[in-house]
Amino acid sequence: MTGPPAAQGRSRGTEQEQPGRGASPHPGSTDPLSPVRHAADLTPLGAWLAAATDRLRAAGVASPRADAEQLAAFVLAVPRGRLALLDDVTAAAARRLDELVARRAQRVPLQHLTGVAGFRHLDLTVGPGVFIPRPETESVVEWALTELTGSAGARRPGPLCVDLCAGSGAIALSLAAELPGATVHAVEVDPAAVVWLRRNIAGTGLPVTAHAADIAAALPESLTRLAGTVDLIISNPPYLPDADRHTVEPEVGEHDPARALWGGPDGLDVVRTVVGVAARLLRPGGLLVIEHADGHGVSAPELLRADGRWSHVADYRDLAGRDRFVAGRRGASREPRS
Fold it and tell me: What ranges does the record give for the region Disordered, renumbered to this chain (predicted)?
């Protein structure tokens, strides 16, 4: 996706150039960036935001005002907090904004329209074919970082981390950005998502190694050679129960890749696979962290305890108070309970 156009708003309190006081456009110019425009060619930004908010609210968008402001900031190429300093937008900018609002009203994700998803301290490139990282996953990463940099982690400089079901690379890249000296691997099976993963690795310049691999099949040599040495396995796998297919929001059901969403009848099919792979790769005492649906607060930790290869198993809530992820440490047993 190409970047946003140059700013096309008129700043509040900024005097416009008048003919004879500087470079003036050719008479009749339709340049949307022209400093001299007829009032009929300008749209009050406040009125546009109000109308866009109403349209998005009527379409069922959860955060209509915030989305309208973010689209305006994107098109006008200004920080969202500076929109209040703009009085008007040009006709060209208003047309572009109307086009984007129409698509957002059709429940196309905001991040697909701007091409960017913010995650912790990163701006990631996203679009069709890759799961859009969610704010609740940030708390999963925060907890894992705290564990790795605590007293136990401090004794192991340069931790070895593996992100399973990596998608856009949000988790892996955050680990690389916030754990200096860490060795980070990101594993993803979906070819379309791998494209976005590699694009974000290249775009951020962070030291993450991407692996296109199906963890449910035989692991490639690039991963099996890590067996018994990994400090952290972290995963945001597909975890929605199949029965939820007709209840999710259109932004999710129609635009996130199905392969990134659905986890079988109970939502735990891929979680079970992650547990098995993690048991092979983690060192004794290594940390496993798996995000799950808010309905898995009991079943996910029970799964780890029943496996028999994990200690210190506990479930944790996100900032909204919902059951969000399970964690445990690799125990001494090498085989799961039968």
Answer: 1-37
Q: Where does a domain end: 84, 106, 128?
A: 106
Which residues in 49-60 are b (16+ Cβ under 10 Å) and which e? beebbebbbeee
**Could you tell me the residue range of the domain that residue 69 belongs to?**
9-106
Please check whether residues 163 and 278 belong to one and the same domain: yes
188 labeled part of a ligand binding site: yes
Is residue 236 part of an annotated ligand binding site?
Answer: yes
Task: Mention every residue, 6+ apart, whose C-beta is less than 8 A from residue 29.
Answer: none
* Number of domains composing the chain: 2
pLDDT digits (tens, 9 = 90+) for 10-57: 444 433 333 333 333 333 333 333 333 445 689 999 999 999 999 999
- Specify the pLDDT at position 218: 84
Same domain, 29 and 139: no
109 among the known binding-site residues? Answer: no
Provide Rg for the chain, Cα atoms.
Answer: 24
310 and 280 housed in the same domain: yes
Last residue of a domain, one of 106, 139, 172: 106
Residue whose C-alpha is closest to residue 56's, from 126, 113, 114, 103: 103
Determine if residue 250 is labeled as part of a ligand binding site.
no
Listing DSSP states for 2-30 in one string gives PPPPPP-EEETTPPPP-TTSS--PPTT--
128 versus 149: which is more confidently predicted?
Answer: 128
Same domain, 61 and 157: no
